[in-house]
Amino acid sequence: MKNSVFEKDLYRWYGEKGESLKRRLFRPREISYMYFLRKVQSASNPVFKAYYKLRLHRLSLKTNIQISAAAKIGEGFYIGHTGRIIINPKAVLGRNINIATGVVIGRENRGEREGAPTIGDNCWIGANSVIVGKVNIGNDVFIAPLTFVNFDVPDHSIVIGNPAKISPKENATLGYINRTV
After folding, report:
1. What's the CA gap between 170 and 109, in Å, rounded?
2. Given 14, 35, 125, 138, which residue has the most CB atoms within 10 angstroms?
3. In the chain, what are the domain boundaries?
4. What is the CATH number of domain 5-168?
């Protein structure tokens, strides 16, 4: 998996290329989950794809992370902690996304926002935040913990509260997103 998307995900964790044998043997479950998610997404052989899906399903039961292999997730994806994380198969996430436990990125099934979110690059999504509907979240957006977002958010913003309020801020994620790819 040289120079793969997973290598870039690993870089977000460790800050260096590759993974030593010790790190591989004691790898956190979040990294294992990302490994098998990326393997399912890239496998062309149906037998290997089925094997990776089975491993991903088992890890999903252990970690409570539910990310469909159909979701489009850019390189440098970082899951901060295991715990309930749900991402809709139709969601699109950009590069260098940090996501915390309890996050739901879901679909709205009716109305003008029917669909799933599109999230830009360099976004930090705090614990127990919910993003639903066909909304566009810009680049460099900080979504505070316990925030409910069902509207578009412009670039370089901080979103906080329920009901959520947007505060424009240049470099909103500075210090929160490290080792970008």
Report:
1. 33
2. 125
3. 5-168
4. 2.160.10.10
